[in-house]
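Technical annex B. To support the medicinal chemistry partners, we prepared a structural model of the target in complex with tryptophanyl-5'AMP, based solely on the information shown next.
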Amino acid sequence: MEKNEMEEQKEEDDQIVNPWEVAGKDGGKIDYDKLIDKFGCQRLDESLISRIERLTSRPPHVFLRRGVFFAHRDFNEILDAYERGEKFYLYTGRGPSSEALHLGHLIPFMFTKYLQDAFKVPLVIQLTDDEKCMWKNLSVEECQRLARENAKDIIACGFDITKTFIFSDFDYVGGAFYRNMVKVAKCVTFNKVVGIFGFTAEDHIGKISFPPVQAVPSFPSSFPQLFPGKDDLRCLIPCAIDQDPYFRMTRDVAPRIGYQKPALIESSFFPALQGETGKMSASDPNSAIYVTDSAKVIKNKVNKYAFSGGQDSIENHRKYGANLEVDIPIKYLGFFLEDDAELEHMRKEYAAGRMLTGEVKKRLIEVLTELVERHIRARAAVTDEMVDAFMAIRPLPNMFD
Ligand code: TYM
């Protein structure tokens, strides 16, 4: 029997990255260089980052400066078009499987907010309540409820309501969106989805038929209320690299149905507290810090679970210093401590053994508590009416202003 892409991936490098599973080889770190080669995406290099800075007249986002967003597909073409005065739209999403988002989920949303502000472009956000209903042991009603709860966390990231449409699949799929789904589905054989996603004959057909649902928001004609007559508008998808398989499929199909391929800008994973072998995951509460965690819970999780690269005794630590390669507190600060000089100073002192794990964790607890408390305040201000307003099917007349 022919091996599928996933089996080959397992055999070749034992590193698994797909929408449902992320694990490094032999419990080690994810090798992102290998992923770029394997998936066939491009590295986001310095020249692209300086181009973004020049085109938007803003300093590059900390996630760009620190290499959190590290890979892309045709992002250069989006910038070429933008430079010529052509616009594009952003598309991202969330699979509502838990009550609250964790810090890893915030990364693409924080970055998407920056892109929306910097390029002044519209954004569509898909809530795949159908996906989670089919993959998890959750009812239709529960997934719809979680979608609305998650929408509040997403809105709390600060998106501009005049440029943003949030939709749930259960509510929105139909019409032009559905017609595009059928066009995509006709181009993808069973063997192809088995190759890309690793489905087996035991998987129910709901899973097998899902990929077109996540594919078609990449096409402007799926949103006739937003982009009438703009079938050539380019789409840029910010996400973590686990979602790449969906869009490899989408890009493969697009030209065959007369559409533009979506471009992507992809991030690495915000790691679990226990270490960089996988992504922070909602399925293991002790691996994750949620955007609803109290200051006390954050302090406890960081102190108890955050894997330290420090030495086992103070004497050894002063002598050998910390191993920053495996240290989670330093890694987390790399995502969320904005001050480059302070981060550099901490890295140097900690690696030399002059700073102790306890001090680094203390600073991390401050940074995360501030971030989460700010989020909790913003989320408390999001009303049900605001959720309805973001999710209303409507034109966005000033979306490019
Ligand atoms: P979901 O809900 O698993 O994740 C939502 C977004 O968060 C990213 N992500 C992470 N980023 C950094 N570090 C992590 N530890 C981490 N965990 C998750 C995901 O890549 C994603 O961008 N099927 C999708 C929903 C979806 C979607 C999309 C996502 C529909 N259309 C278009 C991105 C783009 C899902 O279940 O995402």
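Notes passed to the chemistry partners:
The radius of gyration is 21 Å.
The longest strand covers residues 88-94.
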